[in-house]
## 1
Amino acid sequence: MKSCNVYENGDMRKVTGDTLRPGGFLLTDKAIKVCNFKQKDKILDIGCGIGETVNRLNKVYNYDSFGIDPSEKLLELGKSKYENIKISQGKGEELSFEESFFSGVFAECTMSLMDDWKKVVLEAERVLKSEGFFIISDVYARRPEYVDELQESNINSCMRGLLNIEKLKNFALNSGFEMVYFEECTELLKSLMVKIIFKYGSMSRFWGIATCSTSSSCGNFQQILSLCRPGYFLMILRKK
């Protein structure tokens, strides 16, 4: 059976809401307090989905917000839900913005979906102004020695791309950033998993429904995923 993108599946939004991530706007709002952006600052959301964060940054905080996402389906949903929203098709590895354009860049549960997260870090550094902020919230492997096995799966979810957090930190710090804030947020991920299991009976069954995959492939994916011990984090970097 052909696999499909879990984020384009309505079952995912049933458990996460339209933000498509653990905790909804909780970490978004926390990051905004840390960064202390000014009104009308230009802010980019990489992997914006239907534009929930982009809309919030604009309507609640009065920022000049932009979003990119590779999914034409999600972008169409966003444009039909919100008027005059600045969301367009694009990839985090190839941002179509000029250098030093943004005061902040968000990547909320999307770095783990990228083909090359290192390119995303470099692109974020390029489009940020000096002392601009790169905000990352995402999943990571607390036992990264099993990550390579996980990435061989055809399950198209951020869980397949669990980050190695030490590699991410070191690469970012060697690419023009300094660490401003870090928080372990795994309880948010655990709460989401409990909600999924309560609704669908098991994580394996959820993966099968959300990704159009066979029960055997989903069971194997969940087994390897458990070995990785998924965690969740908020990291805020500042361009030097």
Note: The chain has a mean pLDDT of 89.
## 2
Amino acid sequence: MKVTTAVLALSLALPFAASAQDSIAVMSNEYPNTYSSGSANVYPFTQDSKRFNDWAISAGVGVPLVQTAELNSIKFTENGGKTVFGYSAYLSIDKAITHAFGLKLQYDRGETRQGWFNTKNADATAAAPIGGRTQYDALSLLGDINLSNLLRRVDNKSPYRWALHAYAGIGTLGFRNYIEDENGQRLTGEVDPLTLGSFMFQGGTGLKYRLNNRLDAEARLMYIYTGDDEFDGIVQPSDKSDNFFNATLGLTYNIGKHQSHLFWHDPLQEIYYKLDVLAEKNQDIEVCKAGDNDNDGVCDDWDRQLDTPAGARVDGAGVALDTDLDGVIDLYDKCVTVPGPVENDGCPTSGPMNGGVVTDDTRTLEGIEFDLNSDRILPSNTPILNNAINYINSTPGAYRVVGGTDTRASDAYNQNLSQRRANTVKNYLVQKGVSSGKLEAVGRGEKDLKYAECDPATKCPEWKNRANRRVYFEAK
């Protein structure tokens, strides 16, 4: 299957490879910030091109338990065990740097409680146990490793709702401790933060569950190494550090306008999904089961233009290339890189292309397509929208900007997504100089399919579903 997929991807690229150099020259001139690698255009990463949220706020509460100290929270003896519980809370600002690594700036506050459970004799009648409590504040910088994204198999297509994280980092720890015995309670020690000896280390793991696109729940267990022998309130002549566990339950709120957070995305799965879509178009690339009637090198099974003129260069979907998007394919276009009307063989005239009045005979409004679950305008669609700007500004009528989707999600979700797509295109046109009064953004969800037979989406090849994910224009 991997060999077949690779051959298929290569075959889809070959039909338009000959036109790549011409296209690159045009694209580089049209988009001055576009950089060419010689075979493809690479667009700069900007704030608008981001697809995922990468900031979050986390908060939680829990129970700290002192484990290695003279006074412990947990003590097991021959007669049984005893535990004294404290309380803790944390608040952090989280930044995902990649899908597998991030940073946390975390503030912890709490109180540990501990006791000296060993008494002077077995029946515990000769002396009362000593009790202690420590109030602490900590500020830490933690590294966050998404182990699930590192260990998850790329062919695992199950819903991604659980994630195992590992945390480790350093910080500063300030505390005040108290001892209570038969003489009453007294303050025995105090350490200010950001002083020599107040630095500590903490590390642990957390299990996250994705409640929805905005909220995650997490159970976390951390181990705090204080590096201080006085944390429990007892000073003994030893070099032992008083350390404790902190078990917490918390929530994470993902900040941003995008649908998903970067930590819930695995780029390898996305790549393999796209390759699977290509592979499903034809299980056997060596044979075109439905033939290639127009001899354009693209099998009729996924050819979107079955009557391509002989000699025309085509893209991977079998559609004749139109480099300048003027409606005249390159085979018949005498000005391949400059838009022009059909009646002038694709070359500019003294009419509309040079500032004259644009009419229905020389220019038509075209629609644009969108990526799956996205309302982002692709850079390749800006020439089409710029043509629409010229047309709308030169005509007196008003227009509807109509958004649509495929049928993959629910009706309500698709309705919202289609409205967002229509709003995005309308806002783009308004920013480029079109009067907002001439435009009305309308979302029609999956009720206005270009290919009505694609319900459900699994009945159609991917190019038909993509054609349904569109925005187009209609006169009011």
Note: DSSP finds seven helices and 17 strands in the chain.
## 3
Amino acid sequence: MTSITEKKPGAPEGWVIVLASSLTIVGSVMVAPVLPKMTAHFAPSMPDAALWVAMALTGPALAIAFFAPIAGWLADRYGRVKLLVLGALLYSLLGALPAVLDQLMAIVGVRLLFGASEAIIMTCCTALIADYWYGEQRLRYVNRQVVAIALVGALFFVVGGALGEHSWRTPFYLYLLPLLLVPFIAKVLWEPRKAKSEAHQPSQDGPVAMSTLLGGYALVCFGMILSMVVPVQTPGLLVSMGITSSTMIGLATGIGLLASLVGALSWPLARRTLGVSGCNTLLLILLAVGLLLLVRAPSYTMVIVAVVIHGVGAGMLVPNSMAPVMGALNQRTRGRGMGFFTGALYIGQFISPLVVSAIAGMTAGIPSAITALAFISVLYALCWAVKGVFQRRAPVASS
């Protein structure tokens, strides 16, 4: 039996993991540019079609939020690789299914099941990064994971928008492409030795740092609420400006995702220079500034400027919140701990349009709601700034 081995990870494992991780962003961005066309298609038969079409985009995040901790438990108990193969297969088949469905509610239901496959993929990939590597190597692969997500997300947002010019159904067929990755997952990846994979690390079997976990979960949840404002709300804002081309809508948000690549590439330097708290302050300020500019943009060009600034902050969010969480977990709890992290990330993604709608109902509409979220982000950034100041003044403790 070869499921447990002492192989040393290298570039092949890294490439497969980061490519598999990128599937999670494709799950949402490829559909977003065709939301207006989906709404127009189903509106004659469903008065509340706009709400349910938005649920088709963000509904998978709800499934991920609930299923990711279960996926983490399964990964801890039965292993990462076989579960990852199953998740990739389900991802492709369930992802493409809406292309042939005629009922909006059926599409929403399939997208919820699709979210469970995303939960498996993200949780297993993240746990494998923490299993295979540690220290600076682990941070390097965390960053590569985020970079791959940004690159693939930007590409497929633009591709989804271009294909959506013909029909809103066409982009869903692209979900079949990950079937090509399944043989590589099965052949290249392997289960780490549970007893010895990181025995040289003194904290391997140590206690779990709960305060670090909760802080990371809260940050990634709120950060994703802010991050999802651009892909969910930008199409509607552009339509209100008279821009209805799905290609231009896809390009705008795709550029924002590409800007997140800049943020991800800048993260190692920002983390070394500012520390974790300082980097959190910076990314929350960038998210806030991007949102404020977005709702006040008088032209398509200014929308692009806004989503670029916002994207840089979004690119720093996941690695800067994930790295401390990884370090706070030991191997026995890593699957579950990263499952809860994935759940927190996607619950933020799911509730983002709900939060915007709820605030909009209490204010003067969507732009006012986005403005309110930007100011909350500034306050949150100030909290992290204060924490960073106290940490710098306190005696340096070994972590």
Note: The CA atoms of residues 33 and 250 lie 5 Å apart.
